[in-house]
Amino acid sequence: YQIQKTFSIYTGATQGVIKCPNQQCHWVAEAKNPTDRFQVQCPLCGYEFCSLCNQQYHFRTTCQEVPEITQRWFFWCNTERGNYWQARAQQDANFRAQLEDYERQKVVNERRNEELRQRYNDLLADETFKSQNCRICPHCRRVVQHLGGCNSMICGQNYHGGDVQSGCGRPFDWSKAAPYVPIANRGPQQVKTKLKAPGEQKLVVHKDVQCDTCHNEVQGIRFDCIQCSSLTFCEKCEQRSTLEHSNQNRDQQKQQHVFRLIPAPIEEKRGIRSILSFFFRK
Ligand SMILES: [Zn+2]
Ligand SMILES: [Zn+2]
Ligand SMILES: [Zn+2]
Ligand SMILES: [Zn+2]
Ligand SMILES: [Zn+2]
Question: What is the per-residue pLDDT for 200?
């Protein structure tokens, strides 16, 4: 992914633009590497965002994955966590303490779940808007809105040539560009809770992956924060630890972070972080 992006710099001669997604803010800058995904902090309003999707910056995930991860996290916190521990405790009495802990923590989780519900509703509205008004730039894969004019677009500019959204600065034909495909609402059943009989049930082990709370090797479902560069919890710690994380972010007036559920071990990809370079526009 990273290598491909680095090569595209040499083929594209046009400068791209990055615009602060905060509607009240007018910060715009030229970017040397507009097809790369990097973290931007707006020097005017302080807003932190992803250079490609304008959302909260996310680590170890592509922009395309974020909506589904967000949806899954909401389903997990809202209903699936309870179902999961119920199923586990039914299979194996050792998990009963975990289920009891879940029941005790239910009330303190309500506020977080309410915030997640709000966020999820915003996400669905955003997905609908994008599927109706946006297409994908074939060069940088940005979700681009057509702001009027003919079908020949320059990614990041409207038809008068003004910079109104972030873009890579390369031309494409709107009528041939791929439409934005929104996430499907597949309901909470997507978290696999079907466990085998106690005898044959093997707990998945995520080799060499350590939980940041209990420092044990992660077993069962692994939880990674996608807005922190490195934060992982095991399934036994995640309820308390993700709640604590959520409270910390709220205290700092930051948006809640989203955790990715990883049921099976994955190969770690260590991409080289792209170097950000900006020039202020006159
Ligand atoms: Zn700004
Ligand atoms: Zn992004
Ligand atoms: Zn583009
Ligand atoms: Zn743990
Ligand atoms: Zn985080």
Answer: 56
What distance lies between CA 169 and its chain's CA centroid? 25
Rounded Cα distance between 73 and 85, Å, is 16
Spacing, Cα 228 to ligand 5 middle (Å): 4
Q: How far is the CA of 161 from the centre of ligand 2 (A)?
A: 25
Domain residue ranges of the chain, discontinuous segments joined by +: 16-50, 102-176
* 131 CA distance to ligand 3 middle (Å): 17
**Which of the 8 DSSP states describes residue 79?**
I
Output the pLDDT for position 281: 34
ipTM over 0.85: yes
CB neighbours of 120 closer than 8 A, spacing ≥ 6? 70, 71, 74
**For residue range 37-66, what is the model confidence (pLDDT) as tens digits?**
999 999 999 999 999 999 999 999 999 999
Ligand nearest to the CA of 44: 1
Q: Which residues surround ligand 2, an ion (CB under 5 A)?
A: 50, 52-53, 63
Q: Which residues are 279's β-sheet partners? A: 30
For the chain, which residues score pLDDT lower than 50?
A: 1-13, 161, 270-282
Q: Kindly give the pairing relationship between strand 259-262 and strand 217-219.
A: unpaired
Identity (one letter) of the amino acid at 118?
Answer: Q
CA neighbor of 142 nearest in space, from 70, 57, 68, 62: 62
CB of 53 closer than 8 Å to CB of 70: no
- Sign of dihedral through CA atoms 164, 52, 64, 175? positive
